[in-house]
Design brief:
The protein is built from three helices and twelve strands; from the N terminus they run H-E-E-E-E-E-E-E-H-E-E-E-E-E-H. It is an alpha+beta fold. The strands form two sheets. A six-stranded antiparallel beta barrel has the order 1-2-5-4-3-12. A six-stranded antiparallel barrel has the order 6-7-8-11-10-9. The longest helix is centred in the first third of the chain and has 72 residues. 26% of the residues are buried.
């Protein structure tokens, strides 16, 4: 009679023990698999970081090579490389902030370029940062010249044309020979920008809005919205000539 009750209980206990052992083993396997998965994820994160570092180093090397080529062509230029660390979404003219400033020898007014051409100028300088205004900005005016016709005009930014990725080359003679496709570069006059920095190509020549002169619409050679690094020209032959001349004339009076 006792066996009628104890035997099934023993059987149930045996089954329960086996299942408990099975569940414990399964839990151990899940824990081991989770640990392996975490380790694989960590290895993948490390590989991704290594890959990102590789591409960053490769880009820096490519950029350095390009700037060294520029340096070979312009031995009098002194450079300071910089990385773009901020863009203001409310900025209308593609301006940005770089990670170099006064501590690196950068001053307000210094030209900013890439290996493709002119970007703009330094507008404001902090100790370890600087704000850059691009050639789209109306305050950034550049003496420009056509490589083909050698006609000179003034490059001026405008909000309407900036939205179309264009800048104006104003004050051209009504009989100008400048035509679409012409390469526009800096003239070097005024001592603000060095000579022969590529600006862009002429897209169209239109009538000026203010007088009888003509205006060339120029598409910049640099994609100002996509660049991630730049080079600041901190010194070049002829820099500040106009201001120096004005200071000399003023002191002579």
């Amino acid at each position: 009679f006792v066996g009628l009750f104890t035997t099934p209980m023993q059987w149930l206990a045996s089954i329960g023990g086996e299942r408990l052992d099975s569940l414990t083993a399964d839990a151990r396997k899940v824990r081991e698999m989770q640990e392996q998965l975490d380790e694989l994820r960590q290895q993948l994160d490390q590989r991704n970081q290594q890959l990102a570092d590789y591409y960053n180093i490769k880009k820096e090397n490519d950029d350095l090579k390009s700037y060294l080529d520029i340096k070979d062509a312009h031995a009098d230029w002194q450079f300071q490389p910089a990385v773009i660390v901020g863009r203001d979404t409310n900025e209308l003219f593609s301006g940005f902030t770089i990670n170099k400033g006064a501590a690196s020898g950068i001053h307000a007014g210094d030209p900013v370029i890439t290996d493709s051409g002119l970007v703009g100028r330094v507008a404001k300088v902090g100790t370890t940062y600087a704000k850059v205004e691009t050639i789209y900005h109306p305050d950034v005016q550049v003496s420009a010249i056509s490589s083909r016709t050698e006609e000179i005009g003034v490059l001026v930014g405008d909000k309407v044309y900036a939205d179309q990725n264009l800048v104006q080359m104003e004050y051209l003679d009504p009989k100008t020979a400048i035509a679409p496709g012409d390469l526009i570069v800096t003239s070097g006059k005024g001592g603000v920008y060095p000579q022969q920095v590529i600006i862009g190509t002429v897209q169209e020549v239109i009538q000026s809005k203010v007088d009888v002169s003509l205006t060339a619409l120029v598409r910049p050679a640099v994609d100002l919205d996509r660049i991630t690094s730049v080079m600041v020209i901190t010194s070049f032959t002829g820099q500040g000539e106009t201001m120096d001349a004005l200071d000399d004339a003023s002191s002579g009076e």
